[in-house]
Amino acid sequence: MPRLFTALEIPSSVAQSLARLRGGLNGARWIDAEYYHVTLRFIGDVDERVAHDVAHALYAIRRPPFTVALDELTSFGGDKPRAIVVRARPEPVLMELQAEQERLLRRLGAPPEPRKYTPHVTLARLRGAAPSAVAAYLGARGYFPSLKFEATRFVLYSSRDSVGGGPYIIEAEYPLGRVELMARASGSRF
Prior knowledge:
This protein is α+β, with helices and mostly antiparallel strands. It has helices at residues 12-19, 48-57, 92-107, 131-141; strands at 3-9, 28-30, 37-45, 66-76, 83-88, 120-126, 147-151, 153-159, 168-175. The protein contains four helices and nine strands, in the order βαββαββαβαβββ.
């Protein structure tokens, strides 16, 4: 049973810049740079029939390419920090792409996403990290310069349940701004 989610890939040059933020925080499990992404919609564990339906339904989405700006290093979890993340600026075009996927997946029977969508790249998952240590880590990084990249496609990833992020497999890719459809033929189970 595959675990699926849709996402924007992070170009390697941007991923390498983000990877320089790794280290210096006890209780952090740092994500490997090749697995950095901006999740659009977590779908979860589904059977092969649902995976097939999802993969094909996503082809209906037609959106232009757009620029993604990563501009805030922060944490999620408040008094019980659970992740170090870099937030993506919630530009309308990004939020509309995510909302369209949410609507499409709900029509296919997926339960609604329970949390408000906050676009971000997870750098580390935290277990037992003290809030004061997280604050010190964030404070030591000071000013975070905006990193930008052009999103020209989104992808459907499958993953295994794991503790550190990845490995992720691209099951299908969906170009932005192009009329023709593109499916990843090699390795796709759907």
